[in-house]
Structure prediction request, 266 residues.
Amino acid sequence: MNALGTHLLLDLKDCDKEVLNNLNFLQDSLLAAASEAGATVLGESFHHFHPQGVSGVVIIAESHLFIHTWPEHGYAAVDIFTCGDSTQPKKAARFLIEKLQAEGHSLMELQRGIQAISSIAPAARGIEHGHRP
Amino acid sequence: MNALGTHLLLDLKDCDKEVLNNLNFLQDSLLAAASEAGATVLGESFHHFHPQGVSGVVIIAESHLFIHTWPEHGYAAVDIFTCGDSTQPKKAARFLIEKLQAEGHSLMELQRGIQAISSIAPAARGIEHGHRP
Prediction:
């Protein structure tokens, strides 16, 4: 399979609620995650919602990182989409699991834009569940 | 199942190559798609790559729309992530399938941040394949 993009869907559970509501912390974390992956940052945009919650994107030359947080549920949805072979998106995922102090997580890897097969549906490579010891 | 977010993964195949390389057209299309879905636009950011390809995000109060295009493959990866019940993300997907003149597509719907079940992995609700008559 020859995919154009690797799409990691990271769900973080039982995170610290204060962390999930801290825009500056999340912005720094997502930028640092992009750096961990070896990506080139092109831009960023973060929004704080009332009464709580943050949405943020870091646009990278290799695609994007996104986060949406629900502090009231201790939950964050993260997407890490990269194209090409120059980045290590799983390093970004591991970094964010630690940084946001997630007690549990799931990490699903999808291949987007698969060539040379008739289906163009995203193909799941695998899903991982993790819990803090 | 009570999900916090609905995540549509839309893969567009055999699109018009000129369309996929036209930043202004794609920007207008993604903004119009957000409007079709009934979403509230908070911001946007688009980048054109050399020699070709466009990445763009529209941040909405209900989460985000993203597009990455590979004109050389006639392919675009689109994400439509919404939370709450006030939007109709599938309307945005249908709009983009038409607007980008995709000959084929796949549309996968994932539920993110599912509460009240032990797993936090994204759950697929279904996948649809379509071709132009």
About this structure: Chain B touches chain A at residues 4-5, 7, 9, 11, 13, 42-43, 45, 47, 49, 55, 57, 59, 61, 63-64, 66, 68, 70, 73, 75, 77, 79, 81, 83, 104-106, 108, 110, 112-113, 115, 119-122, 127, 129 (CB under 8 Å).
